User: What shape does this take?
Amino acid sequence: MKIIPVISPIRQAVLVLIAALCLSAVPSTSWGGTPKRIISLAPNVTEILFALGLEENLIGVTDFCDYPAAAKKKRKIGGMSNPSLEAVVSLKPDLVILTTDGNPKEFKERLEAFNIRTYVVRSRRIQDLPQGIRDLGAALAVSAKADRLAADIELTLKKYRNKKPASPMKKVLFIVWPEPLIAAGPGTVIDDALRLLGAENIAGRASAAYPKYSIEDILRTSPDLIIVGKGMGNVEKVSEGLFRRLKILPAVRDRKVFYVSDDLYRLGPRTIHGIDEISGLLEK
Assistant: This one.
């Protein structure tokens, strides 16, 4: 359950005043061109905006927008699920971009109550990414750049769709975090990538997108390959205890444990690099 902070009457009045000043100070745009002041409420959206050459137009991002490095220098407006309405309003944006995956619907409604334009990126799966980029590019009047980026992604996806998968199909466990052990399950970009590459995600039939796994679960399914994502912190160090307990597993014994980047953690331009990375491991 997502909790939206309650704003006190005094703070609400302050926000209304700020919004009024913003609307009077910034000329209204018809949104016929590229918005000059954009706020991104999701890390993958931030990466897409940079890839489209709109970094100068990006005036605010979430606390989790850390790629590319220049994104870390942008003004922070809070988290994805709990952005600061006051911080967003004070930046006088022409447009705030949200996603259906991570941003509260209620926050979009609050922005619109302040006459702040919004755009929602609805792509959640790899196959939807190219069209999502095209739609966003059209909305931001950078269609040519968006078409090129989408075409590059489509080319990579087509290459793997046409590639004959390995036989027999390899069973893969993708560990998002080792302690407690959390795997990538159905509906995730990682699961999409493994399916595209003709691999079996042993957590692909779990009841949650990121299910918890036990040592017994892993031993029972006996994956051919174990992949660990380096999302944050010293994952290799944290994983040491786990792999000591799994040392009897053939994948561990045969050194079929690999650490990879976080390119598949976000649906954006880096997704194709993540697919290439996993493809290389499946061929080892």
Remarks:
- The first helix runs from residue 9 to 25.
- The domain at 9-156 is CATH 3.40.50.1980 (Rossmann fold).
- Residues 107 and 118 are 10 Å apart (CA to CA).
